[in-house]
Amino acid sequence: MTLTRTPINPWPWSAAFGFNQAELVEGVGRVLVLSGQAAAAVAQGLAQLQQSNLDQALATVEEQLKTHRQDAFLHYLKAEILTQKGAEVDSPEYGAAVAAAAEAVRLKPDLVLARDVLGNLYLKAGQNERAIEQSRLALRDNPSDQVATYHLLQALRKAKDPRGEIPGLVKKLAALREEAQKPDGVGLRYKLYEPGRTQHRQ
Q1: Domain with 137 in it
Q2: How many whole angstroms separate alpha carbon 121 and alpha carbon 185?
Q3: Whole-angstrom Cα distance, residue 47 to residue 59?
Q4: What CATH number did the domain enclosing 94 receive?
Q5: How many angstroms separate the Cα of 18 from the Cα of each of 7, 9, 13, 41?
Q6: What separation in angstroms does the CA of 35 have from each of 15, 42, 54, 134, 190?
Q7: What is the helix, strand, coil percentage profile of the chain, to 5?
Q8: What is the pLDDT of residues 88-122, one digit of tens each?
Q9: Count of other CB atoms within 10 angstroms of residue 73
Q10: Please, what's the b/e burial string for 26-57 (b: 16 or more CB within 10 A of its CB; e: otherwise)?
């Protein structure tokens, strides 16, 4: 299993000191590690998201985006929250979710989480070619991305599978799901680190 580490720095000053405020560690599962006060706003939004406090999570993220428009992860969080709130196709919320996810991948093309959300939104709207494109890009950066594999499978079914990829994807998805059931396997997990204590939310 290949692990990849993606630095996440909502505020750019930390680079001068040689450390990242967060890392997204991806393999079969994903672990987001946040550290220190610099990541407090992101951690707060994640905690509210995982507690299904979606309105408060959205308010937290939108408040931070007022002063951190170049933060790809905040844009991803906005898209994720709006998606979980059940944004319907053609609604303003759906449009805002697509725009936020698209901005996240524009700012950080290898942010697989954002591509997963964008692919899901396109799939929901019947935009199969766009869903296929986002899923392939996500899998290029993380071949073990279970979400992207599932989205690609669904989009190809709707597109009549012109290259005959579905059988291989079915086997791959089954293998990824089996791996995720192992003790060390996770679908998506956030680890929030604060000075003096550690929180683990799953």
Answers
A1: 4-201
A2: 26
A3: 13
A4: 1.25.40.10
A5: 11, 11, 10, 21
A6: 14, 10, 23, 29, 12
A7: 55, 15, 30
A8: 999 999 999 999 999 999 999 999 999 999 999 99
A9: 28
A10: bbbbbbbbbbeebbbbbbbbbbbbeeeebeeb
pTM for the model: 0.71
pLDDT recorded at residue 177 = 86
Q: How many structural domains compose the chain?
A: 1
What's the burial of 144, exposed, middle or buried (CB within 10 Å: 0-12/13-18/19+)? Answer: buried
d(CA 16, CA 178): 42
Which residues lie across from 192 on neighbouring strands? 34, 199
Is the pLDDT confidence value at 55 over 50? yes
The owner of tokens 């935009």 is: 127
Instruction: Name 106's Cβ contacts closer than 8 Å, sequence gap at least 6.
Output: none
> How far is C-alpha 99 from the geometric centre of its chain's CA atoms?
15
Interaxial angle between packed helices 72-84 and 40-50, expressed in degrees from 0 to 180 and rounded to the nearest 10: 10
- Kindly state the average pLDDT of the residues 174-194: 61
189 pLDDT band (50/70/90 cuts)? Answer: very low
Q: What angle (nearest 5°) sits at the alpha carbon of residue 116, between those of residues 50 and 137?
A: 150
Q: What average pLDDT does the segment 45-63 reach?
A: 76
